[in-house]
Design a protein that fits this description.
alpha/beta; 11 helices
Length: 370
C-alpha cells in the first residue's frame, strides 16, 4: 500500500522524464445508484430488487468486510464533487486517476450488489447481465481506455455459460470474472465448463478477492477483527490457487490463463514451496498431475501487484519479485479504494527499466491482448 499524495510533488519525487504509460488491472467503477441498471434489467428483476433486495450467503446481516471508518472501502479524496459514491463519476475518475497517472488501459472490476454472492441464481444472473451491459454503456464506450469484464456467478454454471456466450458475441470484453468465494473450491469439476469456454474464447479468467461467501474466510473460522478479515484475503487466494492446480485445471486446460486480482503476491513462494513438497510425497494420489505445481503456477497464473507486501528492507521485496517472476506480475492500483497503490511510489525496491515496463504495461498487454 502506498501513500496517497494530496500535495504538490517535490522535485525529487517527480516521475522520470520518460514516464511509462501504465495498464491498471484493477479499477473499480461504481453505480451512482441502482437506477443506473434499469435500462438493462427486466421489469421483473427491477421489482424484485426493490421488494426483496439481495439474498446473500453471508450468515450475518448488516455487516461488511470493512469498517465504517472506511466507507465503501474508499479513499477520502475519491468522493466525487458531483455526489454519488467513489468510482461513480467518469469525469472525476479521468481527472483524478486516468489522466494524471497516464493510464493507457484500465480494467474494470465491479463489486456492486455483491454480484457473485446472490443465493437466487436467476436474480444473480440478471444482475450480472445488467452490470455487464452497464460497463460498456457507462464506461468503455465513453472512455475506450476502460476495459470491461464478463461477470458470471459460477454456481449457476448453465447461466454463466449463456452469459459468456452472449458477451463473447459482442466482442468487447477482455476477461471472464468469477468469485473466489463460490460454494466449492474453484478447482472442482462443476466449474470446468466455464474454464472450457474461457479457453475456447481465449479470454483470461479473472478472480478478484472479496465477496460474501457462505464459508468463513479463514480455515480457522470467522475472524474477530476487520484487520484480521482483510489479512484473510491472501489465505483465500492461496487456497484457491491450490485447488485449481491440484484438481488439475491447468493440466486439463493447457491454454487457460488465470489472473488473481487484489490478492497481492507476497504469499506465493511459501504456498508453492509447500505444494511442491507435498506433491513429491503424495504424487500417487494425483496421477493426473504430470508436473510439479510450481511449473503450472509459472505457466498459467498471473498476479496483480496490489496490495504490495512491503518488507522493511527493499532487497527482500526484490528477492520476492525475482522468485515469483517479473513476467507473472501485472500492476494494479485498486482505485479508488483506501489501500490504493500509486504507480509512482508503489515499488520501494529498484527495478530496471525493462522490469518496470513488464510489470506496468507489457505483461498485461500480453495477457489481455491489447
Amino acid at each position: 500500500m502506498s501513500e496517497v499524495i494530496d500535495r504538490p510533488l517535490r522535485d525529487d519525487e517527480k516521475p522520470a522524464a520518460s514516464r511509462l504509460r501504465i495498464v491498471d488491472c484493477d479499477v473499480h467503477p461504481s453505480l451512482h445508484s441502482v437506477d443506473d441498471l434499469n435500462e438493462f434489467l427486466p421489469k421483473r428483476w427491477q421489482q424484485h430488487l426493490k421488494e426483496y433486495g439481495s439474498h446473500l450467503r453471508t450468515p450475518y446481516l448488516f455487516t461488511t468486510p470493512y469498517p465504517r471508518s472506511s466507507p465503501l472501502i474508499a479513499r477520502r479524496d475519491a468522493w466525487p464533487p458531483t455526489g454519488g459514491p467513489p468510482g461513480s463519476d467518469l469525469a472525476f475518475m479521468q481527472k483524478q486517476h486516468l489522466d494524471p497517472l497516464d493510464v493507457e488501459f484500465g480494467i474494470l472490476q465491479v463489486l456492486d450488489l455483491f454480484i457473485f454472492s446472490q443465493q437466487n441464481l436467476e436474480f444473480g444472473a440478471a444482475i450480472q447481465r445488467a452490470i455487464n451491459d452497464w460497463q460498456l454503456a457507462f464506461w468503455s464506450h465513453r472512455d475506450p481506455r476502460l476495459k470491461a469484464s464478463i461477470l458470471v456467478g459460477q454456481d449457476g454454471t448453465d447461466l454463466a455459460i449463456a452469459e459468456i456466450e452472449r458477451c463473447a458475441k459482442i466482442g468487447e470484453y477482455i476477461q471472464i470474472n468469477v468469485s473466489p468465494r463460490a460454494n466449492e473450491p474453484l478447482g472442482r469439476r462443476r466449474y470446468w465448463p466455464i474454464y472450457e469456454r474461457a479457453q475456447a474464447l481465449d479470454l483470461p479468467l479473472g478472480i478478484h478477492v472479496g465477496g460474501y461467501g457462505g464459508h468463513a474466510p479463514t480455515g480457522g473460522g470467522w475472524p474477530s477483527y476487520y484487520v484480521e478479515e482483510h489479512q484473510s484475503n491472501a489465505h483465500t487466494i492461496a487456497a484457491q490457487l491450490a485447488s485449481l492446480v491440484i484438481e488439475g485445471v491447468p493440466e486439463r486446460f493447457p491454454k487457460l490463463k488465470i489472473v488473481f486480482i487484489e490478492g497481492g503476491f507476497g504469499w506465493i513462494p511459501s504456498a508453492v514451496w509447500r505444494m511442491d513438497q507435498h506433491f513429491e510425497r503424495f504424487r500417487s494420489e494425483v496421477p493426473h498431475l504430470k508436473r510439479k505445481p510450481s511449473e503450472y503456477v509459472r505457466e498459467h497464473f498471473w498476479f496483480t501487484t496490489q496490495p504490495i507486501d512491503e518488507p522493511d528492507e527493499a532487497r527482500h521485496l526484490r528477492s520476492l519479485i525475482e522468485w515469483v517472476g517479473v513476467d507473472r506480475l501485472l500492476f494494479s492500483s485498486d482505485y479508488p479504494h483506501w489501500d490504493f497503490d500509486d504507480p509512482r511510489f508503489a515499488f520501494k525496491t529498484p527495478l530496471t527499466e525493462a522490469e518496470r515496463k513488464k510489470i506496468f504495461s507489457t505483461n498485461a498487454r500480453a495477457v489481455y491482448k491489447f
